[in-house]
Design brief:
By secondary structure, this protein is of the alpha/beta class. 54% of the residues lie in helices and 10% in strands. The chain folds into two domains: 67 residues, no CATH class; 174 residues, P-loop containing nucleotide triphosphate hydrolases (Rossmann fold, 3-Layer(aba) Sandwich), CATH 3.40.50. Helix 2 packs antiparallel against helix 3. It binds adenosine-5'-diphosphate and magnesium ion (MG). Adenosine-5'-diphosphate binds next to helix 6 and helix 12.
C-alpha cells in the first residue's frame, strides 16, 4: 500500500464541489468522511449519505429563496392565528387549504372578506407561509403597489410580459383590493391580471367590502361584473365578519389593567 492512499487534496475537492453546485455535499463531506472512516462504512453507504444531505440542503435553500421572494409580512403563521376569534372560519378547512394542492393546481381562488382588523392579512400571510413550506411559490403584495407596477409596465408596453412573470407564483395574494383608487382602476391592469390567471393560477384576495362596493376598482360596470365572475367561478369565500382583533386586544388589556393585582398577574396564553 502506498502511504498516500486515502489522502486527497481537500482544497481542490471544495473547489470542485462549488463548481458542481453541490452545497450540501460541500457542507458535510469532511465530517461524514470522518464518521465513515471511523465506523468503517462501505463506500456506497457514504455516497448515499452524501446524496441525502445534498437533497436536504437544497430543499432548505429553496425554502429560504421562496420565503424571501414572497415578501410575506413577518410573524404571521397559522400557529399564531387564534381561530376562536373567527368562529365562522373552520381551522380544518384552513389546514386543508394549506396542505392541499388540488385548488392551486386548477387555479382556484380564495376570497377573504371582513372589516379592518378582522385578521384577513394575517390569515393570507399564514396560508402563504404554509404553502411555501409545502414547496409552493407565493407572492404577497398590497394590491395598490402591484397595480402601480403594472401600470408602469402598460405605459412601457410590457404589461403582458409583467403579468406572465407572475405566473411563477402559484399563489398571488392581493391584499386590500378595495383600496385600489379610481384613477388606478381606469387603466384596467387589474382586470388583465385576473383574466390572465383565470383557471390557470390562483389568486387570494382580501377586501374590506364584498362585491357590492367593487364598482370603483374597475373602469366600468361590465368589467366589474366580468372580473367578479372570473374570481368567483372556482373559489372559496372566507367571510370574517368579526370585530377588530386589534381593538379587542386593546380592550382586554385595558380591562386586565383595571383588575386587582392578584388577578392581573394571571395572563392567558392567547
Ligand atoms: P385585516 O387585514 O383584516 O385588517 P390583520 O390581519 O392585519 O387584519 O390583523 C390585525 C392584527 O391583529 C394583526 O397584528 C394580526 O396579527 C392580529 N390578528 C387578527 N386576527 C387574529 C387572530 N384571529 N389571531 C391572532 N392574531 C390576529
Ligand atoms: Mg389587512
Amino acid at each position: 500500500m502506498n502511504a498516500n492512499d486515502g489522502k486527497i487534496d481537500a482544497a481542490r475537492l471544495e473547489l470542485l464541489l462549488g463548481e458542481l453546485r453541490l452545497p450540501g455535499v460541500k457542507l458535510v463531506w469532511a465530517k461524514l468522511a470522518a464518521t465513515a472512516d471511523a465506523e468503517g462504512w462501505p463506500a456506497a453507504r457514504f455516497l448515499a449519505s452524501l446524496a441525502e444531505q445534498e437533497m436536504v440542503e437544497r430543499s432548505r435553500r429553496r425554502f429560504e429563496r421562496h420565503l424571501e421572494e414572497a415578501r410575506l409580512p413577518p410573524g404571521k403563521s397559522l400557529a399564531a392565528f387564534d381561530f376562536a376569534a373567527v368562529p365562522m372560519i373552520s381551522k380544518a378547512q384552513i389546514n386543508a387549504l394549506a396542505a392541499g394542492d388540488a385548488w392551486l393546481d386548477k387555479g382556484a381562488n380564495l376570497l377573504c372578506f371582513g372589516p379592518p382588523g378582522a385578521g384577513k392579512s394575517h390569515l393570507a400571510a399564514a396560508l402563504g407561509l404554509a404553502l411555501i413550506e409545502n414547496g409552493r411559490r407565493v407572492l404577497f403584495v398590497r394590491t395598490t403597489d402591484l397595480v402601480q407596477k403594472l401600470q408602469i409596465a402598460r405605459r412601457d408596453l410590457v404589461l403582458e410580459a409583467a403579468i406572465t412573470k407572475l405566473d411563477k407564483y402559484q399563489l398571488l395574494i392581493l391584499d386590500d383590493i378595495a383600496y385600489v383608487t379610481k384613477d388606478q382602476a381606469e387603466t384596467s391592469v387589474l382586470f388583465e391580471l385576473i383574466s390572465a390567471r383565470y383557471e390557470r393560477r390562483s389568486l387570494m384576495i382580501t377586501a374590506n367590502q364584498p362585491f357590492a362596493e367593487w364598482g370603483r376598482i374597475f373602469p366600468d360596470q361590465a368589467m366589474t361584473l366580468a372580473a367578479i365572475d372570473r374570481l368567483v367561478h372556482h373559489s372559496t369565500i372566507l367571510e370574517m365578519n368579526v370585530d377588530s382583533y386589534r381593538r379587542k386586544e386593546a380592550i382586554e388589556s385595558s380591562r386586565s389593567a383595571d383588575r386587582p393585582p392578584s388577578k392581573a398577574t394571571i395572563k392567558s396564553a392567547t
